[in-house]
Design a protein that fits this description.
A hairpin with a 2-residue loop joins strand 1 and strand 2 (about 5-15). The protein starts with a strand and ends with a helix. It has a four-stranded mixed beta sheet with strand order 1-2-4-3. The chain is of the alpha+beta class. The protein contains nine helices and four strands. The longest helix is centred in the middle third of the chain and has 27 residues, at about 95-120. Helix 2 packs antiparallel against helix 5 (about 95-120) and helix 5 (about 95-120) packs across helix 7.
Length: about 200
């Protein structure tokens, strides 16, 4: 619970990269509160968060409390809630609900990571270079999201065959070009069909 400058929050333990993601996307401009975020503008996250406040679950509390798997969630973030929610539903999430919310945010971060790396991996010579670009673009660094952790995620979930990816993308780009040339009248219907039957 907290009431600072009439702000009401629920504290949540998250991974360092999730904290950075939340601060980048949902930070509240308050000079006295560095870790304050408001996710109400994100419909999906906000509904999930409020539903966990209003209808708490304790289903996996014991398992989560006894399991050290989630020890990487060591950063505290302050999720702002409305005054009415604060007084009606409280400010604390059960271990089950906190884990569900934190896990959802981790999946979102991994989606950003894998989407970006998959695209860059096709044109850059190494995964290390892709990761450096990812750091710069999305405000992460070795402290908030270590390279070793990113490599493990990539190996487990996103490792792709570079040759296959290039072939697939080349074919898609080729089709787009032919469609655009046809739409602009640069090539005829017969020409388009002929070109499409020519394999690269």
């Amino acid at each position: 619970m907290a009431n600072k400058k009439e702000r009401y929050v629920c504290w949540l333990l998250v991974a360092p990269y999730v904290k950075q993601y939340l601060l980048t996307n949902f930070r509240v401009d308050d000079p006295d509160w560095d870790d304050l975020v408001n996710i109400s503008q994100d419909k999906y996250l906000n509904v999930l968060f409020r539903s966990r406040l209003t209808k708490p679950s304790n289903k996996y509390n014991k398992r989560i409390e006894q399991n050290s798997t989630y020890k990487y969630r060591k950063c505290k973030i302050s999720l702002e809630i409305s005054k009415s929610d604060f007084y009606q539903y409280g400010w604390a999430l059960s271990p089950t609900d906190a884990s569900v919310l934190a896990n959802t945010m981790e999946i979102r971060c991994r989606t950003i990571l894998l989407t970006y790396l998959s695209a860059l991996y096709m044109v850059l010579p190494s995964l290390s270079e892709c990761i450096n670009h990812f750091y710069e673009r999305f405000n992460f660094n070795e402290t908030t999201w270590p390279v070793d952790s990113i490599r493990r995620i990539w190996t487990r979930e996103g490792c792709i065959n570079k040759t296959t990816l290039k072939t697939d993308l080349t074919e898609k780009i080729d089709k787009i070009i032919l469609v655009q040339l046809f739409k602009h009248g640069t090539i005829s219907p017969i020409g388009k069909e002929t070109y499409e039957n020519n394999k690269i």
